[in-house]
Amino acid sequence: MTLFKIIRILILLAVFVVVAFYAKNQKLKSRSWTEPVSVVIYRINGDNNSPVVNEYINELDEGVFEPVDRFLQQQSAKYKLIAKQPTQIRMGPVLTVLPPEAPLPGEGYVAIIWWGLKFRYWTYKNAVDSDSGMRRIDVFVLYHEATKDRSLQHSLGLDKGLAVVVHAFSSVEQDQQNNIVIAHELLHTVGATDKYAADNSALFPIGYADPEQSPLYPQAKAEIMVARIPLSASTMRMADSLDECVIGEQTAREINWLQEEK
User: Fold this and answer.
1) Confidence check: pLDDT of 82 > 60
2) pLDDT over threshold 50, residue 11
3) 157 and 70: one domain?
4) Fewer Cβ in 10 A, N or C end of the chain?
5) pTM for this one?
6) DSSP secondary-structure letter at 139?
7) Is residue 86 in some structural domain?
8) What CATH number is attached to the domain comprising 40?
């Protein structure tokens, strides 16, 4: 092995150590819930600079995202957090640079690591903010035109880096369901895991808003980490808004709202 290769490997190892140390500190601070976590939402036109999308995102204000703060505050009340308001959402500037594309399923661990490093660097360059990154979650919402039968790329919430990439529709009619996706991915960054199976069905009991309900169906609300309401053993529907969602006990434990049972 040449000296150049040895130096390159040592530099990469040093980068990984620094990133891991920083991520560990972020995790501890963001999940202490002693004070509100700052959530900054950046709007991005994800449809090749579509004029329709530009018009929509330029008219958005913080009030559109207020239901996310309200949902987290209402849900946290039953878990008696030190911070009465877990999050404080505000809008960052409109960004014109797209984040690096996430690796496709099956591309391998190395591709995921490489993408993670590129995404961290992209976030560092584009999410310029005065708040401490140790207690700030950056939410990048890529808006797309709401056309019939269109499906969107999967959204991502990264617990190592406190960053979210949400793909959303640029439609007033979709605002409330967009907020469900934002809240779902935001909770991923602080440790929440999905509560649905490979076929998207809610896992019982952790994926049910009220697993002790009798009769079990239909459920009235959705666990936020499923975001769909079980109507029967085989049918579900997407929640219309965060008013139809709850944070269940398992999710509360994962995000440090509820201590693990011993």
Assistant:
1) yes
2) yes
3) yes
4) C
5) 0.86
6) E
7) yes
8) 3.40.50
